[in-house]
Amino acid sequence: MSAETLTIKTADGSFSAYARGRGPAIIVIQEIFGINQVMRDICDDLAASGYRAICPDLFWRIEPGIELTDKTDAEWKQAFDLFGKFDPDKGIEDIAATIAHAHGEGAAKVGAVGYCLGGLLAYLTACRTDCDASVGYYGVGIQDRIGEGGKITKPLLLHIAGKDQFVPPEAQKMILDGLKANPKVEMHLYPERDHAFARVGGAHFHREDAEMANNRTMAFLEKHLG
C-alpha cells in the first residue's frame, strides 16, 4: 500500500497529512521536527501491522511542510523555535479534525500515538477528544496540564523516561501522582532512560527499552482498537 498525502480541512484552513495503510486508524503525532523520516517510518510500521496511520502536519499554522532531523545544531535551534511558537490548543483542534477525517474515511475506531511534543498532545487528545485510545512517549509539559486528567474517560498509555532531561523528577512525580487514581490511565517508567529513548537513530535510543515500550504500545492498541 503506497503512501498518500491527505488534505484535512478546518475552520482556520487546510493542512496536509502523511497516510499509509488500511484498518483501524492511528493518528501519529509528531515531535518538534515535523513530519520527517522518523515519523514516516512509524506510520509505515503501523501500516504493516494492519493499521491506517495518519500523521498530520501540526506546524502548518507556523510554516507548512517542516521536515527536520536531530543531527545538526541549526535544526535543533529551528525545532525549539517552532516549539516555542506552537499553540498546543490549536494543535488539539487539528488532531480532532484528523480524527474526524479518519472516521469520515470509514474508521470505526481511531487511536493516537505521540512522541515528545506529541506525547503532550497524546495526553491532551485523551483529555479533550473522542479518541478511542491514546499513547504518549516522554511527553513534555504534561505536568502543567495535569488538572485536565480528570476528563480522561478512554484508555491512555504513557511511557515516562526516568532521566528525561526535559521532564525533571518533580514533574514526573506530578504526572504519576496526578493520574494514578484514574483507572483508564496506564503508565510505565523507564528509570535509566533519557528523552527520546525510542527514537531510532537518536542520541539516546535504547533498543531494549524501546522494544519494550513499543511492544506495550502495540498490545494496548490491539486491545482497544482491534
Describe the structure.
The protein has 226 residues and is α/β, with parallel strands linked by helices. It has one domain: 3-Layer(aba) Sandwich (Rossmann fold), CATH 3.40.50.1820. It is built from six helices and eight strands; from the N terminus they run βββαβααβαββαβα. Strands 1-2-4-3-5-6-7-8 form an eight-stranded mixed sheet, with helices on both faces. Helix 3 crosses helix 4. The longest helix is centred in the last third of the chain and has 19 residues. The model has no long low-confidence stretch (mean pLDDT 97). This is Dienelactone hydrolase family protein. Keywords: Hydrolase. It is an enzyme of class 3 (hydrolase). InterPro entries: AB_hydrolase_fold, Dienelactn_hydro, Dienelactone_hydrolase-like. Its EC number is 3.1.-.-.
